[in-house]
Amino acid sequence: MKVPNNGKNFWWRVCRNILATKENLFKRRCAKDNLCPICDCEVETIDHMLFLCPWANMVWFGCNIKPFGNLQGNASAVKWTDDMVKVLGTNKATEFMGRVAVIAWHIWKGRNDFVFKRGAVNPQRTVDSIRHMEREVSTTHVIPTVQMDNPLNQEETSTWRAPDVGRVKANCDVAFPMPGKKGNAVAML
Ligand SMILES: [Zn+2]
Question: How far is the CA of 143 from the centre of ligand 1 (A)?
Answer without folding.
Answer: 44
